[in-house]
Amino acid sequence: MSTQDEWSSFKLVDKHVTSIAPEATFDAKSEEIKEDILRLIVQYLQNEGYTSASATILDEANVKIMEKHQEREMVRKISKSIKEGDWDLVAKMIHKNSNLRKVKFHSQQGLGFLYAVCKEEYLELIDRQEYQKAFTYLTTHLKPMEKVSGRQEFKDLCYLLTCKSITEVESFRDWEGVVKSREKLAEQLKATFELDAVPTENVNIPDNRLVNLLHQSVAYQMEFSRYHPKTVPKVSTLLRDFECQVLPNAVKTTFVGHSQNVKCVTFVGREGTYIASGSSDNLIKLWSTEPRHGQPINTVAWDLHGHSSRIWYLSANSAGDHVYSASGDGTVKVWNVRNAISYLGDVDGASNPPPSNNSDCISTLTGHSGDVYTVNIHPNETHLVTGGYDQTVRLFDIQTGAVVKTFVGHSASVCDAQFNRHANLVVSGSKDGTVCC
């Protein structure tokens, strides 16, 4: 069914499948992105007259900006001191700035860098053959960091005290001398405490940027919704994704194929692209809701054979790959409809007649002693509830086919049985005029 008047220009469009995950478009944890979001919020608050709120946010943001300036300046000074070999100054600055927000020298990465600094100073002492100072430095600085260095490397550091050249030890054959090793250490400092760029104070933000981005987001959702309206709907909330509301009021397609009266119909899957119908001709037919070549009459269907009596009720799982049928032959059948969906989804292939067999039936559930009038699936899609002529309501395990529970209480046929949303209640209606829950 489709609508007319202002909705008459709706057309069914394929569900948009994107190759880009929304969360992959930008890194929400990036400091630059966070700064941009704050700017958008501040601009919106200022435009709406929330001057105090915007000023508070700006004050907090400015504090963080000052911290970043301090962090970058500290790293620059330490890097300069490393290149100059002023190790005492390096140690003082590290101790003084050990608790900055981003540069945490007590973290795992920070301890690794501290060890690299101590090792470089020690290697330079060995290189100058100042063995007494090197021994003292080894015991006071490197020994406490033995866990960071590793036992074998610490042994090699000790062995250096007996060597005339650093490259005599296998672990330090790649040591390239004082100048290059200091430059590498300075680069390690920058890499270890990779700091975000300090935001530019004056950034040109387009007018109403936040509102414009929200407009674009909602317009995208409308563009790729299942139906396109003739007039743009008014959105009353941004707290939920846009969903187009359509009220059917005209016949879109008539499905022709059953030889006797149709007892039941159901949509197959949450998308509503396919439907199933059951009839007194003992057949279940699956149809595509898409009109074939624009024709209002659809005769192309996939038949499910297997029941020996009329089909009273049908239901389907949310994925749309299984259909459950209740029949006058006293059974409930579980059908795999993947082949049917594949066949009906192929416009060209559907011009060929479908096979006629019951190979799509994957299990038959028994237990009722007469007609089964209703079958519905558990919200978790693990069980089925059925009701029938024998005045009972039965709970089936879909996987094993076993009857888990039989509910007795009606004095006439059970016409319908349903789970509630939380799946902790079953309600049934009977020809005896009662409803049981």
From TrEMBL:
A single cellular component GO annotation: nuclear speck
Every TPR1-like CTLH-containing domain range: 79-193
Annotated GO biological process: mRNA splicing, via spliceosome
First and last residues of every WD repeat: 255-290, 304-339, 365-406, 407-437
Principal localisation: nucleus
Domain of life assignment: Eukaryota
Subcellular location: Nucleus speckle
InterPro entries (UniProt xref): LisH, SMU1, TPR1-like_2nd, WD40/YVTN_repeat-like_dom_sf, WD40_PAC1, WD40_repeat_CS, WD40_repeat_dom_sf, WD40_rpt
SMART domains in alphabetical order: LisH, WD40
Keywords carried by this UniProt record: mRNA processing, mRNA splicing, Repeat, WD repeat
Family as reported in the entry's similarity comment: Belongs to the WD repeat SMU1 family.
Record's protein name: WD40 repeat-containing protein SMU1
The organism's taxonomic lineage, starting at the top: Eukaryota, Sar, Stramenopiles, Oomycota, Saprolegniomycetes
